[in-house]
Amino acid sequence: MSRVVKLAVIPGDGIGREVVAQAERVLDAVTADGDVAFEKTRFSLGAGRYLETGDTLTDDDLAAIRSHDAILLGAVGGTPGDPRLKDANIERGMLLKLRFELDHYVNLRPSKLFAGAPGPLASPGEIDFVVVREGTEGPYVGNGGSIRKGTPHEIANETSVNTAFGIERVVRYAFELAGRRRNKLTLVHKTNVLVHSGAIWQRIVEQVASEHPDVVVDYLHVDAATIFLVTDPSRFDVIVTDNLFGDILTDLAGAVTGGIGLAASGNINPDGTFPSMFEPVHGSAPDIAGQEKADPTAAILSVALLLDHLGLRDEAARVQRAVEADIADRSTPRSTSEAGDAIIARLQA
Amino acid sequence: MSRVVKLAVIPGDGIGREVVAQAERVLDAVTADGDVAFEKTRFSLGAGRYLETGDTLTDDDLAAIRSHDAILLGAVGGTPGDPRLKDANIERGMLLKLRFELDHYVNLRPSKLFAGAPGPLASPGEIDFVVVREGTEGPYVGNGGSIRKGTPHEIANETSVNTAFGIERVVRYAFELAGRRRNKLTLVHKTNVLVHSGAIWQRIVEQVASEHPDVVVDYLHVDAATIFLVTDPSRFDVIVTDNLFGDILTDLAGAVTGGIGLAASGNINPDGTFPSMFEPVHGSAPDIAGQEKADPTAAILSVALLLDHLGLRDEAARVQRAVEADIADRSTPRSTSEAGDAIIARLQA
Ligand SMILES: CC(C)[C@H](C(=O)O)[C@@H](O)C(=O)O
Ligand SMILES: CC(C)[C@H](C(=O)O)[C@@H](O)C(=O)O
Q1: Into how many domains does chain A fold?
Q2: How confident is the model at residue B191 (pLDDT cuts 50, 70, 90)?
Q3: I need a surface site. Which of A71, A291, B65, B178 has the fewest CB within 10 A?
Q4: CA torsion sign, B106 to B111 to B114 to B117?
């Protein structure tokens, strides 16, 4: 073995645990004969951990995770309305904390309509685009507060923070990606209303565009972008957008390409200063948890993104192909582990 | 004539002028034999006016408009990228200024899939819901700014302002509407991330809910809501949400119900202190302007909303029925005025 990859595995809550189990099996299978060994550390984090210990993500957890080369995450979140979770915000306290602390400034979310995948659109056409969602600023920074709380005079503010530094690095990433794809980049924002945050995004996209004369640049307001996602998704190649618009667009994109059961994502720190984190776009789905009903495909495709990020391009491509073959040929409903079995069988075929 | 309604008509730019012409014809036709007279004043506002005079909306314009009972608006906005409009923001300076100055705190956007309407979904099911979008606060307030502008150290902030006062009045409106419909209300927000603005929305919805025990209350994060809009739109009855999420959801809702060529809206001041304003959800579409290609249906359905708001329920229902009959029976492509002719013929049949 010439190389060891230290992988932090965070199964999380609900179906996160079930899908990660299959993703790990796929990872093991595809790397079994290679010369890279994965050394895994399992972290118990999420609503389950919070209910046991009261912790969301301690400094020790964070330091331990940071010492890894990459992270595989399932999903986190308890049962909605669980009174014991009333004062916890697992999303901000754990998931977003990891994205922010590990400077995951690129939230990479590919959307592809695989042959055979079910989808809600009558004539979807070819869908193959990537959303490059900014991951460390915008409306997600948590800069807000409330006065006269709980009274009829309450005022709650929430500030979106957008920096030239933060935008430029993610925009550069998006242009480079577009250059390796179909040379088309669409900025999505709401510049006609959010004039300050919109103007800085527009200025920086224009500036970086001048260094990429081959890339055709387009702009859409976020509302119009949602229309095109259902009426003409083929028009998109790379979309670059802020944290909140990216959140919205990628769920919708997942839906139009067969459901978020298939949507993978990478939270990437391209500098390599911190480990990048790979996770399905879906949540922990407490309503179907523990029943082996969840589709592990999104988690398995997240393994493909992880392998690609680690430079293991052949392995990534093999996982991707196995999943595509599986999607093309699904018939009877399967349990989570049967789906894993099927994909592993394709891998080994 | 026992009653005179003073109507301000703002055709605006591009196809706005063409669709408003048909909407006015329909209004004239449906009120011809009634005992309400519409006294119309035409206002030239929008990109065209700005290019001529440099004004977006002067104090005099505003005072004059305010003295009317209601407003019919087409669409505003010039050609994207027109260098002469670089320093203008017609949307903020005119459209949003009207919504804010006239305290249009309810932005009412019905979404209905009419029999025969084309749509992108393979199995849409029955779609019939209304989005009650807050219209005077949230991320739309324009409270923001930038420091070190144009430099690599620029920081642009944009603050969403949410008040108990502003939220409570629109939430009350939404609950009352749900009570007159199918008794279901869905709050859409992003409470797990936008904790401050999300918490105040949630608190007020819970509080008003206690006065409406018959209304079943549901909550969805905005990203999940976009998924359901394409996978299960029948689940919605009344959606209440903030200004930005409402903007996004209603464009998507328009798309799934046959395109924003059919989507009407009312900017309503329920108190009656200021005139309410009715407009199609679509924009001025400069690319097809002046060619009589635009579908005037959304503008005509906006007339139905206007009539309903004025208490002319029979007339509103007649317009609505004429449009539904027309949609059910469209065949060959028609010009904007031919579409107007067809709907007027149905009205008079
Ligand atoms: C769980 C939530 C905080 C998260 C987000 O909003 O980013 C999720 O929706 C996602 O898209 O990964
Ligand atoms: C033109 C724009 C300012 C407007 C909005 O964002 O409200 C439009 O998109 C709408 O939905 O009426």
Answers
A1: 2
A2: very high
A3: A291
A4: positive
